[in-house]
Design brief:
The protein has a single domain (7-271), classed as Vaccinia Virus protein VP39 (Rossmann fold), CATH 3.40.50.150. Helices cover 29% and strands 24% of the residues. The chain has helices at 7-27, 33-37, 45-51, 68-75, 87-99, 116-120, 141-151, 215-224; strands at 58-62, 79-84, 106-110, 125-130, 152-163, 187-191, 207-211, 228-235, 247-249, 252-254, 265-271. It is globular. This is SAM-dependent methyltransferase. Keywords: Methyltransferase, Transferase. Residues 64-160 form the Methyltransferase type domain.
Length: 275
């Protein structure tokens, strides 16, 4: 379903949607905050391997939600700043930092992602990180790329681990046939009761809007702001059951038939020019 509202109105609907889901996510086994407090790893192995050692690096996490991944990087030695448009999410992240003793290595700011340079500091970061399920909530991918470039120090890196845009257009049951136009750039507004962390939860603010950015859109936006693409890698697992046909494998989901796979996630690194 397409919506006639302005981007500002649609983003505000999304904010209400996410604000309501913060307590659901905080209490869920999906996020397992108790496990994280006890020392469990929050980040995928491939992300740790690809980004490498972050000890004493300044890392900005855009669209950080409740701060689990942000604090995961802090636990690996980074000084982190998390930013999200949901004030309840930022309060949860701040509390989690205190609970885990990571508050001296972290700060969290409630703000729109496009205001990140003003809120977090121009050229203040060695790494800008964006994790799973973030870019589809942004109406303007080119403005996002300019924001990333504005945050990075000379020689700094963007590291992105994201759902593959192909997952936006495949059928929800099997993830095997094309159900929507891959090349459309129209906003898609839909009704989404509950949450991926608890499908049975009773919720009120169920209207959500996503913007589809193709892999080419994302790579081109990053290149256009002068960042050098280091790699783009595609992955056959995803951290939630995007399609009913996927099967769980070591806390991740994948296609059951290894001979008929499609990409479910991708990761990308790009670096800013050194002075």
């Amino acid at each position: 379903m397409n919506h006639g509202g302005s981007d500002t109105e649609l983003v505000e609907d999304n904010r209400r949607h996410w604000d309501e889901r913060v307590p659901l996510h905080t209490a869920s086994s999906f996020y397992d905050l108790d496990g994280f407090r006890a020392g469990d790893e929050a980040l995928d192995r491939f992300q740790l391997d690809e980004l490498g050692d972050v000890t004493d690096l300044d890392l900005a996490h855009l669209q950080c939600h409740i701060g689990l991944d942000t604090l995961g990087w802090a636990r690996h030695g980074a000084r982190v700043a998390g930013l999200d448009f949901s004030a309840p999410a930022i309060r949860t992240a701040t509390d989690l930092a205190v609970d885990t003793g990571l508050d001296q290595r972290s700060r969290f700011v409630a703000a729109d992602v496009y205001d990140a340079v003003e809120e977090l500091g121009a050229g203040a970061f060695d790494v800008v990180y964006t994790g799973s399920g973030a870019l589809m909530w942004l109406p303007d991918i080119d403005r996002w790329a300019r924001t990333v470039a504005g945050l990075l120090r000379p020689g700094g890196r963007l590291y992105l681990a994201e759902f593959h845009p192909l997952t936006d257009v495949l059928d929800d049951e099997h993830g095997a046939t094309v159900a929507r136009d891959y090349f459309t750039r129209d906003a898609r507004t839909y009704d989404a009761p509950g949450s991926y962390a608890d499908w049975e939860a009773a919720t009120t603010y169920n209207t959500a809007t996503e913007w589809h950015h193709t892999l080419g859109d994302v790579i081109s936006a990053i290149a256009a702001v002068g960042l050098r693409i280091e790699f783009v890698r595609e992955h056959d697992t995803i951290p939630f059951q995007r399609y009913a046909a996927l099967t769980v494998d070591d806390a991740h989901f994948r296609y059951p038939d290894r001979a008929a796979r499609l990409p479910l996630m991708y990761s990308l690194a790009a670096s800013a020019p050194a002075r």
